[in-house]
Amino acid sequence: MTLLKRFLILRTALIGAILILGTGPILTCSADPFQYPPVIQPSVDFWLAIYTRYSLMEGVVHDSRHPEIIYDVIALKHPDAPEAHRINAARMRKARLKVGNQLDRLIRNPHSNDPDLKPIVDLWRASLSPDQLRQAKRRIRCQVGQRDRFREGLIRSFPHIETIRIIFRSAGLPEDLAYLAHVESSFNNRAHSKSGAAGIWQFTRETGRHYLRINPAIDERLDPIRASEAAAKLLKTNYRRLGSWPLAITAYNHGIAGMRRAKRRHKSYAAIFQNYRSRRFRFASRNFYPEFLAAREAAANAQCYFHDLPPWEGRPVLRISLNGFVPFNAAVRHFKLDADLLRHLNPALRLSVLNGHQYIPKHYALCLPAHEWQYHLAYNARIPQPLFMASQKRFPLYHVRPGDTLSSIAKKHDLRVADLVAANNLADRGNRIIVNQKLRLPLGDQAL
């Protein structure tokens, strides 16, 4: 398929997507709290197509500043296929190089009649000065389609989305902020980033500690409900300090200090989107608010874009606050539950708790399936006092010395490396240790 044909097909698809929504911008209801400046329309349309049309096996080669400029759509390997990362990186690099070479030819001869260059000439129309083309060459980017991942995120959101909407409404915030989790993590509560962010709201450890409990026994970033309560507080703070939702939402990605600097310099969100330049305000930050608007449209009207979503049958859950520290296996036995089910319902519990090296923390809201008999057990019988422990298990400490590795430390103390990693939350740090670091050792009667 020629480049021109690919462009015509893509342009038709994007126009079709816009027509589904009507002739005006997406979500233009007068009561809508989210501003929709016309300058971001091409970016919203682009992300809507990425979320709803293009799969993980398609790469859209485009201009990073003007996403309506789409050069090509290339085939990719599925991310789970063997060698997919290496193969896809090579294919995307080749596609970018091809477009770069075409732009080079136009830079040398902006009035070329070469039919191979006509699709690019048509895309840019009058913007064919050599300087503009050189800038365009630096902006060639390939975006992997997300339709499959977005669909999976919709399914993962089913158990929580209504509760999360209530959380935002109760905080006096727009309910549709719940859809921001699609942009952050595709509602994957096990999502971890290279920077150590975790959970559906991708809180870093530093930011999360302002709102959530994060310690060796529990990481509330991984609890969709508790993390959503924290996200509501953070977004409310952003809005109070910045005064608009486009800025408050962008600050969720870029940071509030950076957005305050941008606001002082450019005043409005539209001006920031068009003109703001900084070392950190790059593609991801600039596109964060358009991504949210596109995700909101795709999720709120999911049946229009995804025709094969499975029906959701709600499974009510019950949360009970623990009056003391409880061994995980004791809770499993007491409530007559499968251990995997209890683990699934309580994703904030760390491996150190699941493996028995620590107890479920005091005052933790334990989540249970709300069957009738369990309801009565929880509220009438509750957990017997003898099952509660007076204090949390404490691990002896080990100071990392030069030359130490996790394997050598585990071997020296007759431990499994996995238990050492779990007791110290090292998975969040890529299992890295440094000299003089204090490590907790799950030893003796504290181990399994």
Folded structure, characterized:
The protein is mainly alpha-helical and 448 residues long. The protein has helices at residues 3-21, 41-52, 84-108, 118-124, 130-138, 147-157, 161-170, 180-185, 205-208, 224-242, 245-254, 256-266, 269-275, 283-300, 302-305, 328-334, 339-345, 351-354, 372-381, 406-412, 417-423, and strands spanning 58-63, 70-75, 140-144, 317-321, 365-369, 397-399, 438-440. A three-stranded antiparallel β-sheet has the order 2-1-3. The chain is globular, with a radius of gyration of 26 Å. The model is unreliable at 1-30 and 444-448 (pLDDT under 50).
Report the principal-axis shape.
globular
Helix count from the secondary structure assignment:
21
Approximate helicity band: 40-55%
Strand order in the sheet with the most strands: 2-1-3
Order of helices and strands: HHEEHHHEHHHHHHHHHHEHHHEHEHHE
* Strand residue percentage: 5-15%
* Residue-averaged pLDDT: 87
Distance between the termini: 61 Å
- What is the SS-derived class? mainly alpha
How does the major sheet shape up? Answer: 3 strands, antiparallel
Radius of gyration: 26 Å
Write the layout of secondary structure elements.
Layout: H1 3-21, H2 41-52, E1 58-63, E2 70-75, H3 84-108, H4 118-124, H5 130-138, E3 140-144, H6 147-157, H7 161-170, H8 180-185, H9 205-208, H10 224-242, H11 245-254, H12 256-266, H13 269-275, H14 283-300, H15 302-305, E4 317-321, H16 328-334, H17 339-345, H18 351-354, E5 365-369, H19 372-381, E6 397-399, H20 406-412, H21 417-423, E7 438-440
Antiparallel strand pairs: 1-2, 1-3, 4-5, 6-7
